Amino acid sequence: MGGFLSDYGVRAPFFAAAGLTLLNWLYGYFVLPESLPVEKRRKFEWKRANPIGSLEFLLRYKIILGMVASLVLLYIAAHAIQSTWGYYTMFKFKWDESMVGYSLAFVGLLIALVQGLLIRLIIPKLGQQRSVYVGLSVYALGFLLFGLATEGWMMFVFLIPYCLGGIAGPALQGIMSTQVQPNEQGELQGALTSLMALTSFFGPPIMTNIFSAFTKPGTDYYMPGAVMFTAAFLTIVSAFLARLSLKKNHPVVKAPVETQQTVH
């Protein structure tokens, strides 16, 4: 949609996004039912409704700090795609705006397939902990393959393992949700959203500067895939931290619960 709407001006996709966001808000306010029973709700407090307050919530639960660190690295790694995909594919494979749009549409299709269908099959089959390890492994593999790709068509193929890695985020959040009280589930999700927003402040400049450093004219270390290799490394470290946290705390994993996907 973004590629198509850009034919009507560079501002058109943003106006469309604003309209969709408004529709989303209207749907959430007037249609979507409240999932938290009245008896489990807490009194609203402004100190817990701001981003900093929500991050402080995570610090109260030492048992999930290792998993939080794992998510931080995962969120930053994701910006190798979110922040440099267009630059990377245009630079290395000479794609135009339309091809970038088609590739991102394919990403959306795969993510919809993973979140809408495969998560409901894979996580109950593997269990949440194993889903974390498998998801992070194929996620790292996807980044590595992006960096090694020599032809544009390969990027479409390599998007498959990359998007399959999307099972890791929901599985990890599902485990974290079992470690907080029932009336704190919303606060946990809010804190994780704030965490994602915070990493969005650091992720783009980190990844775009890495890409620039290894592709600028006259560089002594020409390597367009360096940004993807960096993301693969961060994902491997994320898996290591998740493993340490899960092994140390031995959380009692309940039946899989509905969680939000946070990594693209």
Task: Tell me what the structure shows.
With 264 residues, the protein is mostly helical. The chain is built from 11 helices and no strands. The protein is globular and about 60 Å long. The two termini are 17 Å apart. The C terminus is likely disordered.
In short:
It is built from eleven helices and no strands. It has 264 residues and is mainly alpha-helical.
Short descriptors:
mainly alpha; 264 residues; globular; 70% helix; disordered C terminus
Report the count of strand segments: 0
Quickly give the structural class.
mainly alpha
Q: For the report, how would you describe the main beta sheet?
A: none
- Compute the separation of the termini in Å: 17 Å
What integer is the average pLDDT?
A: 85
Supply Rg. Answer: 20 Å
What is the 3D shape? globular
SSE order and pairing:
Blueprint: H1 2-5, H2 12-30, H3 51-59, H4 65-82, H5 85-93, H6 97-126, H7 128-148, H8 152-164, H9 168-177, H10 185-213, H11 226-249
Helix pairs in contact: 3-10, 4-10, 4-11, 6-7, 6-8, 7-8, 7-9, 7-11, 10-11
